[in-house]
Amino acid sequence: MYQRAVSPAEIVVACAGGRPKDINLFQAQKAMENARDAVLPGGSLILVAECAEGLGHPVFERWAREAKCAEDCVERFGREYEFGGHKAALIARESLEKDLILVSSLAPALADLCFFRHANSLDEALAMARERQGKDARTIVMPFGDLTLATRG
Prior knowledge:
By secondary structure, this protein is an alpha/beta fold. It has 6 helices and 7 strands. It has one domain (9-145): 2-enoyl-CoA Hydratase, Chain A, domain 1 (Alpha-Beta Complex).
């Protein structure tokens, strides 16, 4: 019912849905997962999520902190499963294929730890994405990223 076929774009903006869906990055990651097929390989995925309570899950945070790089986190997931670590691995996997930008009150160092570039505002994030993708890059906005599943159409 909430699936939407799209023609993938260079830039996708996904809103996590507001509180409580964006209370932390652990919860907000769901909108990123829903939007991933809307972004072309090498494209920019902008996740808009307040994350007032930080990362949100101790295992998720531990996996992010223990990973030397995104590849390390993905490889770890391939050999062990631990609830919470799976979301760190999913974000890491996407960061290997896409430019991830997080618009959030989360500290920039924590965004970086979780394989995102940090932006203070949507305007800043769009400027970052357009610098990488080109000023005329096609853009998809998913205001209900938490509820909408983008599929390649």
